[in-house]
Amino acid sequence: MDELDGNVESRVVASKYGKCLSRCDIPMAEDTHDKLIALAGLAGMTKAEYARLIIERHIYGAADQIQRRDPLLG
Is the distance from CB of 12 to CB of 55 less than 8 angstroms? Predict the structure, then answer.
């Protein structure tokens, strides 16, 4: 299987947030999927690695921002 088509497992089994044991199947438009694969390739990553990085950056970055804005949530 070709890494560029996203049909291989990620080379990384952990992130700085812990082991990557859970999966997330996300339906998306074909054009979005194609762009995800292209961006992952430009970053030298598999689709899974790149998607995980983007999701983690958003989730953990958003959590930090929410906690700074509303101390009652932190």
Answer: no
What residues does each domain of the chain span?
3-73
* Pairwise CA distance, residues 35 & 50, whole Å: 12
Is residue 40 a contact partner of residue 47, using CB atoms and an 8 Å limit? yes
pLDDT digits (tens, 9 = 90+) for 39-68: 999 999 999 999 998 998 888 887 776 667
Give residues with Cβ within 8 angstroms of 20, minimum separation 6: 10, 12, 13, 14, 52
Query: How many CA atoms lie within 13 Å of 20's alpha carbon, on the beta-carbon side?
Result: 17
Q: Is the Cβ–Cβ distance between 12 and 49 less than 8 Å?
A: yes
**pTM assigned to the model:** 0.66
